[in-house]
Design goal:
Elements (H helix, E strand, L loop, with lengths): L22 E3 L1 H6 L3 E6 L16 E4 L2 E5 L4 E4 L20 E6 L4 E6 L6 E7 L3 E3 L5 E2 L13 E5 L2 E7 L7 E7 L19 E8 L9 E9 L11 E9 L17 E4 L3 E3 L5 E3 L2 E8 L8 E7 L7 E8 H8 L4 E4 L4 E4 L28 H9 L16 E4 L5 E11 L2 E10 L3 E10 L1 E14 L9 E5 L4 E5 L3 E6 L10 H6 L5 E3 L4 E3 L18 E2 L8 E7 L4 E4 L8 E7 L7 E2 L6 E4 L2 E4 L8 E9 L2 E13 L1 H14 L10 H9 L6 H14 L17 H16 L19
Parallel strand pairs: 1-29, 35-43, 36-43
Antiparallel strand pairs: 2-32, 3-4, 4-5, 6-7, 7-8, 8-9, 8-10, 11-12, 12-13, 14-15, 15-16, 16-17, 18-19, 20-21, 21-22, 22-25, 23-24, 26-27, 27-28, 28-29, 30-31, 31-32, 33-34, 37-41, 38-39, 38-42, 40-41, 42-43
Length: about 750
Amino acid sequence: MAACEVAPFGLFHSALFSFGGLFSVTFQELLGDNSVRQPFSTLKTFKMCGLKLPEFSAIMLAGELWELNCTHLKVVKVEQHLKGSAFAFQAECMNFVKILHLYNRTHLYACGTGAFHPICGFVEVGQRVELDFKSLEDGKGKSPYDPNHTAASVLAGEELYSGVATDLMGRDFTIFRSLGLRPSVRTEQHDSRWLNEPEFIDVFWIPESENPDDDKIFFFFRETAVEGSQGLGKQSFARIGQICRNDMGGQRSLVNKWTTFLKARLVCTVPCTDGSDTHFDHLHDVFLLPTRDKRNPLLYAVFTTSSTVFKGSAVCVYHMNDIRRAFLGPFAHKEGPNYQWVSYQGRVPYPRPGTCPSKTFGTFSSTKDYPDDVIQFARNHPLMYNPVLPHGQRPVFLQTNMDHIFTRIAVDRVAAADGHYDVLFIGTDIGTVLKVVTVPNDSWQNMKELLLEELQVFKDPSPITSMQISSKRQQLYLGSRTSISQLSLHRCGMYGKACAECCLARDPYCAWDGTTCTRYLQNTKRYGQGSAYRLGPVTFGGQSSSGIQKIYGVEGSSTFLECLPKSLQAKIVWTYQKTRSDPQKEVLLDSRVIRMERGILLRSVQRKDAGFYYCHATEHGFTQGVLHLQLEVIHAQQADSLSLSREEESTQPFHRKLWYQDFLQLVDHPNLSTMDQVCEQLWSRKSHQPKKKPPPLSPLFNIKSKSQKWKHLEEKQKGRSRRTHEMPRAERAPRSTDIW
C-alpha cells in the first residue's frame, strides 16, 4: 500500500480557523449558540432503528415511539409486545425495532426482534399514537431475530423489500418481498454465489423508465467475496444488488425465487501511479440524493479500509448510468483448471437475465414466461464481472490516519446565488459530524471538497449510528446507541461580522445581506447586487482592515516580516512596491530573502528594501489581504546612537529601553540554544570597552549635548562602584525589543 495512494487527500487539521478552513466545535459551544439540542439520553444502551422518515414526525427507539417536532422529542408510551415476561429485563429480550416505515397518512409499519421472535404491526399516528395489537403478525423475513444482526428495507408502494437473516443463528440470509398483492419471493437458499454472509446496509426503489413495470429495487450490502484472491483469507467486498419489482419467480425452476437478481462489486479506490490501488471495501452507509430526473439520483456511499494496519475512510459518489452499465456488462464465470473467475464469453440467453418483463424491453409479461435456459443462467450467474466505479474514478472526500472513521452520511443540495452545491454531513465513530461542501475548482466540471466544520454533537462521544436530514426544517437528526441529537444545518452568525469573512467561509447556506452574515434565501430582495456572493474564485483588496504597520530595519542586519493567516491551509504570497505609485510585484525568494514558517526573513537589509510589503492569503480560489507593512531602513550608527540616547533620557525606573545591537545579535545568532552565553558576552564586553563618542545624528533625533551625556554616564559609573548596605536590587527585567 504505497504512500502516494492517499497522501494528497489525508491532510486535514483540527485547529480552529475561519478563513476557508475547518472549525472544530465542541458540544458545549454548540449548546451555547443553540445549534444543537440533545433532548434525550438513555440510561441504558439501546439499539436504535434507522431514521428513515424524511419530513415525518416520529422515530422508534427501544420499543417506544418517540414523536419528533421542530423543538423537542417527547415519548409516547406504547406497550412493548414481548414474548415471555421472564426475559423482559434482559437487554437482548427487549423488542428492538429494526424496521419503521411510513405506510400511509395515518399509519406506520414497524417490525422488531420481539425477544427473538420477530413481530410486525401497524402503529396509528394521529392525535394519539397507538399500536394496533390486532395487526400484529409474524415478522420472519422482515426483521432479524438477533438485535445484533443488520437489516435494511424499503417500502415500495404497499410492498416491503427487506434484506435480513431469517433464522436465529444468522446463517440464512435473504432478500425478501412481503406485504402487497404479489407473492412472497426470496433469494436462493444456502447458495454462496447469491449471498455469502451479507451485512445489509440500505435499500432504494429507483425507477428505470416511465413504465412502472421497469422499476427496480437496489440493495447495498457487504459480504464475503466468493471471487476473492486465494491465500488472502476472507475478503469483504461492497456490493450493489438489483431485482425487478414485478419479478414473480420462475415457473418450473426458481419457484418463488428471484429470477432477476444480479449483483456487482461496488468499488471505492484511490489509484496510484505504480498501478496499485488502495481499496476502501468496508461499506457503512449509502445516501440517495434525488435530482430533477427521478431515474438518475446520485448515490453517496461511506467506506472504510478493511486493513488492520492502514486506517482510512472515504466517500464515493455513484451515477445510475455507471451502475446500469455494469449490470449490462459481462457476467462473471468460473472456469479453467484452477476455477478462476473470468468474463463469460459464451452465449447469453434471451431475454437477458436481469431484464424486467415489460413492453419496454421485450414481449414477456411475467418472469414465469421466461424460457428455462434464462432461469438456469440466472441461477448460476448472479455476479457481474465488471465492478461499479465511482464518479471521477476516485473518492470525492477521504481522510487517513485519523482518530476516527466515517459511519454515516447525509447530503443536502443547497441553492446558492450562482448554482447548486452538495453539502455532505459525515458522522464518525467518535460522535462528531464533518460538514463538507463541494466547490468548483477552476470550473464547474472540476469539483473538489472543502471541509468546513467538525462538530461534536453528543455530550459523551459515541458512534453515530443513525442520521436523517430534513431540508424543510433545516435540521439534522442524529442517533447513537444512547442518545439523540438535533443539529442545525447552518450557523452563519459564527463567520464574523465582515463581508469578506462571510464569503471566505465558503458555506453555501450563508450570504452577506449588507449588514450580517445570514441564511441565504432564494427569490428574495434582501441581498443587494454583489451581496449574495458566488462560491467561485473571488479576490479581495490587499490592504488589511487594521491599516499600515510601520516597522524599522537596521542596514546590514536581518529583519523578519511576520504574517499569520487565520487558516492553516492558506498559501501566503508577499508583494512589494517601492512607493504607493509603483505597481505591486511579487517578492522573489533568494539566498537573502528566505521564506519562513511564519513570514519572510530579509538578511543583510539594504536601503533598496525599504517600501511597502503586502501579505496575501490565498486558499481555494480566494485571496484576502492579511497584513500591510511599511519598512524603513536606518543606518546602523543611527540605531546605536538612538538606543544610547534613549537610555540617557530614561528617568523612570521601569521605563522600557531599546537595545537594537544586542537584540539583532540575538536574532542573527545561528544557534539559539546559546542565547544565554551570547547575553553574557554582550554584557561583559559593554562593561570593559571604552566609551566612544557617538557620531552626529540627523536633526530628526532630539539628542542631548555631549557634556550632559558624559556627565550622566560618569555619575552612573560612580554609582555602581559605591559599596553600601542597601537591600540587594531585584534582577533586571529583560530589555524591551518593541518596535519604535
